[in-house]
């Protein structure tokens, strides 16, 4: 076990504080990302949260994932939000009245009694399920946890690889900037430019009651988010055979799908099944990722605009995440590392926090405080830490681990931080920050 960072005696206090955040944000069947800003259950948040919760309560970690998967649609999609009916309408926008899943989503098999959004987020869930199982196999076998979640996780992946392969060339596409989980990344600026924003009078944002406007997406961004979601809803949330004003292949989402496919292989093996189809699928996804999104000139992966059939020349930290893949060719992994440690991302820099920013430090749109346009996020850095370890760069992984724990705790488990100074931005007591810090202390 690696030594905890910081002065001796510091880490137990950090772990205690992280546990307190997860306890406060637990609703009884799942965990909110934060009570004020995000008062429902979010998809990829729940996966990261379960990864931390497994060290506190393997049972709660199992329930977290089961609650989310219980809201899965018949077509296999796992919605990005599962709404809590006890939360007042208007507390979050867009809420259940906007998505109208139980009516508009019926053709795609949305649940009748649970209200959800109609879009998705990155599939971190099989990875989380496998890590939760491993934390306490006896507690998992006792409840038949793996057997319970396996069919749902398999259907979820099938939805992404079949219904979302919009280009027909082997990678899933996202149809809304909320889907890759990095809402206002500068990568989406160009593909969004031709989307006509919805009338600002037609909706009311709730996020600005809880977050500083300078830390959040702009009103123009929101107008476009609303337009895309309204159009998707009007089409019954159908994917294939209809035009999408926004269709993008994201290296972050594709990486997480491939990683989760590896986890499904482990799950199949544990259940006495055949891991090979999942390993083959993971290899196929990794190959497609390299073929469609690797940019030798940039030394990193880039997103692809499916409508323009072109790579988007903006550097997001999502383009470093393939480092987490076990079967990424070593020459590419070495290039990605070079880019991560270079001036665009400053991974491990002693002059800054050592965390990677969400977007290129030298990019024209860089903004140290605004959401996914620069700030450092803890989930991305947690994934990179795994990648460094996976490829044998243990010292670097250890330094990143210490930075995540140290900066995460000092920021009050902020949603995101200024990557140079560590100054907290966004909401505090954010669940996945606490969960992933806890995981790295375990
Ligand atoms: C929209 C909950 C979610 C995260 C996303 C993050 C943010 C929502 C919002 O919060 O998005 O889904 O209202 O801005 O971008 O990654 O899952 O924490």
UniProtKB/TrEMBL annotation:
> What sequence ranges are listed for the domain Mannosylglycerate hydrolase MGH1-like glycoside hydrolase?
38-433
Q: Which GO terms describe its molecular function?
A: Glc3Man9GlcNAc2 oligosaccharide glucosidase activity
- Name the GO terms of the biological process aspect: oligosaccharide metabolic process; protein N-linked glycosylation
InterPro entries per record: 6-hairpin_glycosidase_sf (IPR008928), 6hp_glycosidase-like_sf (IPR012341), Glycoside_hydrolase_63 (IPR004888), MGH1-like_GH (IPR054491)
Q: What keywords tag this UniProt record?
A: Glycosidase, Hydrolase
Answer whether the UniProt record assigns the keyword Nucleotide-binding to this protein: no
Q: What is this protein called?
A: Mannosylglycerate hydrolase MGH1-like glycoside hydrolase domain-containing protein
